Amino acid sequence: MSFETIRANDVINYIGHPDVLIIDLRNKEDYLKGHIPSAVNIPYENLKDEIISLKQKRLLILYCDRGNISLMAARDLAKYGCRVKSMYGGIRAYYGRLETGAY
């Protein structure tokens, strides 16, 4: 299985879409400081515990701080048959609106 990468600012097209789950792979503290709207927080080290619930028909869009962790996670999830895209450059490359708090 393979996965795609998307540009950071293209993620705006997926925010709030019912068939898409945007996943912030950073730790809880960084997520609370600012995350992409509608993103859920699943830290990378907890991702394997969530694979069964993530292996749905929805498209998964992953991001982290700089993009390296999301690439590894996308590769892993694609092996399990998930439809997945990794956001190139991570949240540091994203210039859209951020939400804070709301865990």
Envelope shape: globular
Number of E strands: 5
Main sheet: which strands, in order across? Answer: 1-5-4-2-3
Uncertain residue segments: none
Number of domain modules: 1
Radius of gyration: 12 Å
By CATH reckoning, the class would read Alpha Beta
Mean pLDDT metric: 93
CATH topology: Oxidized Rhodanese, domain 1
Number of helices: 3
Q: Provide the CATH architecture.
A: 3-Layer(aba) Sandwich
Order of helices and strands: EEHEHEHE
Give the percentage of residues in beta strands: 15-25%
| Alpha-beta classification | alpha/beta
User: Helical content, roughly?
Assistant: 10-25%
The major β-sheet equals: 5 strands, parallel
Label this structure with key terms.
3 helices; 5-stranded parallel beta sheet; Oxidized Rhodanese, domain 1; 103 residues; 21% strand; 21% helix; 5 strands; alpha/beta
Walkthrough of the structure:
The chain is an alpha/beta fold and 103 residues long. It has one domain: Rhodanese-like domain (Oxidized Rhodanese, domain 1, 3-Layer(aba) Sandwich), CATH 3.40.250.10. 21% of the residues lie in helices and 21% in strands. The protein has three helices and five strands. The chain has helices at residues 28-33, 51-54, 68-79; strands at residues 4-7, 20-24, 40-41, 59-63, 83-88. Strands 1-5-4-2-3 form a five-stranded parallel sheet, with helices on one face. Strand 2 (20-24), helix 1 and strand 3 (40-41) form a beta-alpha-beta unit. The longest helix is centred in the last third of the chain and has 12 residues, at 68-79. It is globular and about 30 Å long. The mean pLDDT is 93.
